[in-house]
């Protein structure tokens, strides 16, 4: 006779965390601690007595977890699938924090540092979430900028200066609103003009002027 699910006791928890090749904010130990602290001991209980919705609510209280899916199998295991939050920007102003791909603040982690664009300068959380985070996402989604831009410096008037990984100069972008044409203009200049003239010729590239790239020599 087949075993009824109500008679099956919990033998353990199997945890799967997505995208650990990119970020490792949450591991199996974190999940088990969260379950024990927020829900209680589930071992040797009937798997049907374990409230899956309650478990999911407990897990998403973790600021590093975006979503959790809980289900059970008739071999007695509770399965937990975790999707971590994905940072696109690391802000070093004040205590420091990340902005994730949904434009929400998430704390820095003591166990892992995500390799994303760093932002410094005059930054409040509203500007970081509404303006700077989406801009960092735009950079991340374009392979050229993702590989090239290392840091964003925000001035008091909310102008953004980009610091590249290659070349000892700064790029004055200006406002991040409607910046696609300026970025395209910059990409053409970097791929064509500056590679011919050399990376160390300029100390500043300014994109704030209409239809031109203004360079300041060293």
Shape call = elongated
Measured between the Cα atoms of the first and last residue, the distance is 84 Å
Number of helices: 5
Strand content: 25-35%
Physical arrangement of strands within the biggest beta sheet: 6-5-4-7-8-9-10-11-12
> Whole-number average pLDDT?
90
Which residues sit in consecutive blocks of at least 5 with pLDDT less than 50?
none
As a percent range, the share of helical residues equals 25-40%
Oligomerization category of the chains in this entry:
single chain
Helix/strand-derived class? alpha/beta
Per DSSP E runs of 2 or more residues, the count of β-strands stands at 12
Order of helices and strands: EHHEEEEEEHHEEEHEE
Main sheet overview: 9 strands, mixed
Structural overview:
The chain has 5 helices and 12 strands. It has helices at 28-38, 52-59, 125-141, 143-148, 180-197; strands spanning 12-17, 65-72, 77-84, 87-91, 97-100, 105-106, 117-121, 149-154, 160-164, 170-174, 202-206, 214-217. It has 218 residues and is an alpha/beta fold. The longest helix has 18 residues, at 180-197. The protein starts with 11 loop residues before the first strand and ends with a strand. A 9-stranded mixed beta sheet has the order 6-5-4-7-8-9-10-11-12. A 3-stranded mixed beta sheet has the order 1-3-2.
